[in-house]
Amino acid sequence: MDFKLTEEHEMIRQAARDFAINELKPGVIERDEKQEFPKEQVKKMGELGFMGMMASPEYGGGGMDTVSYVLAMEELSKIDASASVVVSVNNSLVCWGLDTYGTEEQKKKYLSKLTTGEKIGAFCLSEPEAGSDATSQKTTAIDKGDHYILNGTKNWITNGNSAEIYLVIAHTDKEKKHRGINAFIVEKGMEGFEVGPKEQKMGIRGSDTHSLTFNDVKVPKENRIGEDGFGFKFAMKTLAGGRIGIAAQALGIAAGAYEMAKEYSKIRKAFGTEIKNHQAIAFKLADMHTSIEAARHMVMKAAWDKDNGHNYDLSGAMAKLYASQVAMDVTVEAVQVHGGNGYVKEYHVERMMRDAKITQIYEGTSEIQKIVISRSILAD
Ligand code: CAA
User: Fold this and answer.
1) How far is the CA of 235 from the centre of ligand 1 (A)?
2) CB-ligand 1 contact for 74 (6 Å cutoff)
3) 123 beta partners
4) Could you give the CA distance from residue 120 to residue 331 in angstroms, rounded to a whole number?
5) Which of the four, 77, 106, 123, 247, has the lowest number of CB atoms within 10 Å?
6) Which atom of ligand 1 is found nearest the CA of 313?
7) How many angstroms separate the Cα of 10 from the Cα of each of 5, 16, 72, 251?
8) What is the average pLDDT score of the chain?
9) Could you read off the pLDDT of 189-226 as tens digits, one per residue?
């Protein structure tokens, strides 16, 4: 067993770290305050190859492994989780889904624009009445021969307004339940497709989350992904990989907050010495470091499973469940180590605490991860 990263992995990690410090950190507090999408930063991440890391090089992707992707996600998330969720959704839900299941034409037309960041993608599964219960899709797509007519509403869509290419899940035949669900590529600008108001969020406020409505949107048949009825499996398979990305995001938020708390403990003095010399603080740092290291091992194992052709439903779900809990615990403690300053925006950790919460909710809540885990361990 070799825990050492390759030279290439180290280079990717360093490149993501440099980008996060030099390009994401300046303005991160203001973007959070104003709910401002990191448009310029996302454009640059596209130019640097962070938007389609695992996608095939022939469609502009980086052809990298999942380990590279989670390393980058961790480093970006240490500084700016709003920017890293844009990377995560674009890479693991949209690019990976199209690269793995799209037709040659779909890849040429859409994937090649998504991998370079020329266009941003969104994954549209959740609905007002279908969040965790994902098979209860109310959005419909009626087969009209050479096209489908799409009607319905999607909720809490990451990149809702900034995206231009949307993967939309809809029922084509309700009688067939989950086997009557399909996934479609919908473009911004198609008649009848409207982006709703922006959600006012607690955390990851720089990312834009919107509802979407489809009123008789004509979607060409060639925009369906996979065989008829493949849509639910498409969503589940895509989300299984997405959960590794969000686990890496949670890990990064935790690791970023921990690094700040550690540095602060070396400069802040109380009772005549730096607070790191008080066991109350040193033990907090010890607990934070230990849980982060455990989460990192789980994230890496899930990425390794995916890269080596093993089933990663279980390891991905466990990594997300655990890393998101670590993100919550560590960010709360990082605020505590900072004392009064922890409650103030300029010290970053209060934002990280707010950002951490969503990792226990999106791409499957912690309770959904426990369904996936328990079904998997009880299957035999
Ligand atoms: N891979 C392949 N197929 C899978 C699968 C997987 N990982 N998981 C389930 N399936 C298949 C099953 O085999 C079954 O198909 P067959 O009957 O043909 O065998 C079908 O899917 C239905 O499976 P279940 O009976 O297990 O379905 P269920 O109704 O019990 O739901 C669930 C399972 C795991 C709870 C699922 O509904 C789920 O994951 N819910 C959470 C949805 C979610 O993650 N939403 C997040 C929104 S996206 C987002 O947040 C993105 C963003 O913007 C950040």
Assistant:
1) 7
2) no
3) 167
4) 29
5) 106
6) 7
7) 6, 10, 10, 17
8) 98
9) 999 999 999 999 999 999 999 999 999 999 999 999 99
Structure tokens at 43: 């454009």
CA 51, chain centre distance (Å): 12
- Known catalytic membership, residue 363: yes
150-168 pLDDT, tens per residue? Answer: 999 999 999 999 999 999 9
Question: CB under 8 Å to 372, separation ≥6 — which residues?
Answer: 313, 314, 317, 364
- Say yes or no: CB of residue 364 within 6 Å of ligand 1: yes
Q: How far apart are CA 295 and CA 301, in angstroms?
A: 10
Helix (H) / strand (E) element for 123: namely strand 121-124
Instruction: State the pairing for strand pair 121-124/273-274.
Output: unpaired
d(Cα 266, Cα 333) in Å, to the nearest integer? 16
Question: pLDDT tens digits for 294-326?
Answer: 999 999 999 999 999 999 999 999 999 999 999
Q: Is the beta carbon of 239 within 6 A of some atom in ligand 1?
A: yes
| d(C-alpha 189, C-alpha 330), whole Å | 42
Q: Whose structure tokens read 């300053």?
A: 341
User: What is the structure's pLDDT at 1?
Assistant: 85
Residue 289 vs residues 246, 252, 295, 301, 316: alpha-carbon distances, Å: 19, 12, 10, 18, 21
For 63, the token pair is: 């052809």
CA angle 301/45/154 to nearest 5° reads 75
Q: Can you tell me the distance from the alpha carbon of 126 to that of 137, in angstroms, rounded to the nearest whole number?
A: 8
Model confidence band, residue 237 (pLDDT cutoffs 50, 70, 90) = very high
Residue 151 burial by CB count (10 A; 0-12/13-18/19+): exposed, middle or buried?
Answer: middle
